[in-house]
Write a structure and sequence with these properties.
Helices cover 13% and strands 43% of the residues. It has two domains: 201 residues, Jelly Rolls; 402 residues, no CATH class.
Length: 706
Amino acid sequence: MKKILFFLLFIAATFSLFAQYGEPMAILEYYDDDLELEITGADGIALVDIYYGMDLQEGDTIRTERTGAELRLDPNGSIIKLSPFTVFTIENLQKSSEDSNDFNLVSGKIRAIAARSGFSDRYKIETQSAVCGVRGTDFGVISIPGSEEKAFVVDGLIDYTNRLTMQKIELGSGMVGDAFADVFQAMTASAEQMNDLVKDVLFEQLDPKAVPGHEAPEEVVEETEEAVVATEETTEENPDDKTEEQIKESALLTAISDILGLEIGTVTIDGDTYSKAIIQPTFNLGKLKLSLYLPIVYQTDLFDPEDWYQPEGNNEWSFGSDQTDVEDIALDILSDLFLKIRYVEWGEQRDPFFFKIGNLNNMTLGHGILMKDFANDANFPSIRRVGLNLGIDRGGFGFESVVNDLADPEIFGTRLYFRPIGKLALGLSSAIDINPDESADPLSAIPIPDDTMFLTAAADLDFPLMENDILSFIFFADIAAMVPYRDSKFEQDMIYNSDDSSFRNFGWNAGLFGNILFIDYRLEYRYFDGVFKPSFFSSSYERLRGTYIEDVNNYLNDMDNPDYNQTVMGIYGEGGFTLFDKINATFGYMWPWSPDGSQTDEDEFLFEIDVLPGTIPVLDIYGSIAYHRTKFIPTLLNNALEDDLTLFDANTTFTGEIVYPIAPTLHLAAIVSTSVRTNSDGSIAYESNGYPEIVPVITIETRIGF
């Protein structure tokens, strides 16, 4: 009888364990914005579709940007909250009583409420400097590599181990441990300190009271719903407290404020000062982001359309009414509609699918030997274009494409690539400018054929030597050349010298890119010959295309001229990082030299910094600066090969703004940028040195949120 009873108990226990640990998984229950959420599998490939209720497996890494996320472990019922800007990996899910749920917090902040369904439930959270051993506990972990490593307990008990000293401490309810403190010990947190620790990891969708073995959280942790209830109970005692209805109204007003935006101020274009009133509604619809640009820019009379600024001579509010030909009417309607788009975005480059439409300043093909940070907004707002950048990555193959202006397309680019072996990627790229002579100097001494085009082509490869959230080293190499087209034929002699059977006017590069902790980097060697330039279609190409076509035309007319036979080599380095979620910065420089010792001006300098709201105390001023230039050091030292170069000429793209928040919905902004000066017919004005004339664009505006 005892044997039978024991057998039945054994069977019951076996089924219980099977039910508890069979097919464990983590379920993505909630997120604020899936466009700010990235999930990659154990193979390092980003998942295409992200949706509520999706199953996450071992090896999956969740990266949150400006969004939170909530996970639930199934079947045991534990829940995990990820704060914005967190990288979190599911290492192992418990499958037996000897196993455990293991996670790796690469960076950021989490809070977990671990189920107390039995003594067999175990959890382990690892960071770079510490390990948390957990049973049924409400706790949190913070990890900013090299800066902050903490654990805190709301309810329960955890073992907290310093991986550097291997010292272990116990943290109970209301306690905090700091792995970077001079003394590694458990400290009691005040109610105010604990509320500060949990305020950005409160659960919005999942209910902590539904976790097996847990009652309502302690008073020190006020979850969203409980806070509303507490507010309703105290409204009569304190009339300053908000009711639930007031909270909903406030949330509605906040949502409307996020959608609608109004700019009122002045802007200087081509030396003329205009007043402006611009409505810019913005919509976030899941992965889709949309912003419209509805401007009225005028000099004297807001209500006189004839007085409104017309970019490149086009009345963008006419919608074909100022045209007579049917084809011109249709094209004008299309052009005017496109000009009302500020941007439409879905995903980012290297995602399984992405596209961007609008004023763009970061269009890149592959590693950028042909096109890198190409900008169709370099002359915004005096010249406005609506470009397109899209790509698809199907794992084994993919493509990218670029168009500079959907209303008047002239510059096209595409890249096809495939992965024949593992993660090794091979690609072919091409970029073409079908009408560069449109931007040429009309006073050029040597006539330029009207049918001139630039056709560039490249081959590339990249191979991830190591790719994860902490360290990534991706090797790449590219080779490229340009073949002009003019007088109804391709000028293939430009890249192949039949006299000595040698190649010329080409370029190649090789290097590494990736990340080291929170720093993104790029390091490469560059080699280019003759009139070929790496990143030919760059941020300043729209300004310099007229200069390029004159250089190429002069070269084709005299290919034996020794002035065009220079070889340049260089080392380019670039680094970018985000500091404390408050400052974004990117720096880059190419150091060039010539193998024969001759002087070369072909350096490249990049500086971008973005200071977010809340970084500077008291005044809360924020803003950004972006400066990208070639021929930087020679111009700075005043020893450039060319005369009359300045730090803000056509070789530079620059924009900067300072914003002062007068009130939560009222901000005052000062914006300075540069643009080419255009003639009355819309053509580009040139200086005597052959470069386009650059003028400042100064904007003072009041930004109003509703």
